[in-house]
Amino acid sequence: MYNILTLNKISPIGLEKFDKNKYSYASEIENPDAVLVRSASMHEMEFSPSLKAIARAGAGVNNIPLDKCSEAGIVVFNTPGANANAVKELVICSLLLSSRKIVPAIEWAKGLKGEGENVAKLAEKGKSQFVGPELKGKKLGVIGLGAIGILVANAAIHLGMEVYGYDPYISVDAAWGLSRSVKHAKTLGEVYENSDYITIHVPSTPETKGMINSESIQTMKHGVRIMNFARGDLVVKEDILAALDEKAVKVYITDFLEDEFLDHPGVIGLPHLGASTPESEDNCAVMAADELIDFLENGNITNSVNLPSVSMPRTTDTRLGVIHRNVPTMLTQIAATVSAHGNNIENMTNKSKKDYAYTVLDVVGDVDKEIIAELEKIEGIIRVFIYK
Ligand SMILES: NC(=O)C1=CN([C@@H]2O[C@H](COP(=O)(O)OP(=O)(O)OC[C@H]3O[C@@H](n4cnc5c(N)ncnc54)[C@H](O)[C@@H]3O)[C@@H](O)[C@H]2O)C=CC1
Ligand SMILES: O=C(O)C(=O)COP(=O)(O)O
């Protein structure tokens, strides 16, 4: 039996993927083999030695201690693109909210309650205070052209906006998916200088944290509207509040709430709703469950953020999965150890990702615990899994 610990509400459609004869899952479970998580922070968690994998049903993995996981041989997965459409739709909604004063207009309209026959007349009289510009013809800067950024950029082109896209690490697949009408901004400065609206779609990393700050805001157009559906810490809270007070930033729409935002007239705050659609929750949970099942049962890795993708059809009854450092002589030492025990290696594959690598070996014959112990003693080998 495999034990799956769930740390957030995970869509039942994903959980149903786990065969009840082989898996138990619960929000409290002893010795988990794997964790299924959304946004819950795992930074302070103690990991049981039984833990082999963590699947983030979503995109951002800043709630997971990646270095600690890599050093413990825990594979961390996410579900690229599975919730991107949900975020795109809310960003498009936010572009409109930031322009057309929809939220204050709705609040004001509620105040007409009790005016009876005069409501329509009062509405016509009062509406001029809620005039706001159209999106068509305006310039939108999209920072980060991954699963979400591309969808937002392409949708904004269809709304008649002039779109500047910035992503120095754009993947080939993403570049293929981007509308040819999106202008290629070569620097962030180009985005800041030109944009009437800016939307951020990058992960929170040491490079991106605090990227929206007093200095960067100074280079933006006066009265720029900023959307942040990526992570709260990409924007320096004190700096955005000061810029809003000075009207340098007209509106800040964020999915990440802070106490100071709640009553600020320039902020529209949402309670991290970007991915909260049934469709996204299902997509993410199904993808995360599939990734865990294929890893726990076959040692195949797809969509890991700390280890390479390695998938090989099973060709023998016994498989070894070896997580090791990306250094010379690992493969020769692994092969020599397995061969010394008389096990023929029928098929083997190896891939690396930055400092780490993963090797899968389909071997003939039974593999005894001794081989595992011997392999784990080799310097550079972090963890060995056996699949039968
Ligand atoms: N509000 C919500 O509910 C959600 C928020 N998110 C957040 O949005 C982020 C992006 O999500 P996806 O588009 O699905 O991820 P993704 O991994 O497909 O795209 C991220 C893009 O950012 C680019 N990038 C990285 N560093 C950059 C930098 N310094 N400058 C410019 N571009 C850079 C990458 O090259 C990549 O193309 C996630 O990391 C997560 O933090 C994601 C889903 C839901
Ligand atoms: O996928 C992401 O990065 C998100 O921020 C979505 O978070 P959630 O799964 O809705 O808690």
In short:
With 388 residues, this protein is α/β, with parallel strands linked by helices. It is built from 13 helices and 16 strands.
Key features of this structure:
388 residues; alpha/beta; Rossmann fold; Alpha-Beta Plaits; 7-stranded parallel beta sheet; 21% strand; elongated; binds 1,4-dihydronicotinamide adenine dinucleotide; binds 2-oxo-3-(phosphonooxy)propanoic acid
Question: Explain this structure to me?
Answer:
With 388 residues, this protein is of the alpha/beta class. The chain folds into 3 domains: 1-82 and 275-307, 3-Layer(aba) Sandwich (Rossmann fold), CATH 3.40.50; 84-99 and 133-269, Rossmann fold; 308-388, 2-Layer Sandwich (Alpha-Beta Plaits), CATH 3.30.70.260. It is 32% helix and 21% strand. It has 13 helices and 16 strands. It has helices at 12-15, 66-71, 84-100, 102-110, 119-126, 147-158, 172-177, 188-194, 214-218, 237-245, 278-298, 330-340, 369-377, and strands at 2-6, 23-26, 34-37, 53-56, 75-77, 139-143, 162-166, 183-184, 197-200, 224-228, 249-254, 267-269, 318-325, 345-353, 356-363, 381-387. The strands form 3 sheets. Strands 8-7-6-9-10-11-12 form a 7-stranded parallel sheet, sandwiched between helices. The protein has a 5-stranded parallel sheet with strand order 2-1-3-4-5. It has a 4-stranded antiparallel sheet with strand order 14-15-13-16, sandwiched between helices. Strand 9 (197-200), helix 9 (214-218) and strand 10 form a beta-alpha-beta unit. The radius of gyration is 25 Å and the shape is elongated. The model has no long low-confidence stretch (mean pLDDT 97). Residues 58-60, 80, 83-84, 87, 143-149, 166-170, 174, 201-204, 207-208, 229-231, 255, 272, 274-275 line the site of 1,4-dihydronicotinamide adenine dinucleotide. 1,4-dihydronicotinamide adenine dinucleotide is lined by residues 58-60, 80, 83-84, 87, 143-149, 166-170, 174, 201-204, 207-208, 229-231, 255, 272, 274-275. This is D-3-phosphoglycerate dehydrogenase. It is an enzyme of class 1 (oxidoreductase). Pathway: Amino-acid biosynthesis; L-serine biosynthesis; L-serine from 3-phospho-D-glycerate: step 1/3. Belongs to the D-isomer specific 2-hydroxyacid dehydrogenase family. It comes from Zongyangia hominis.
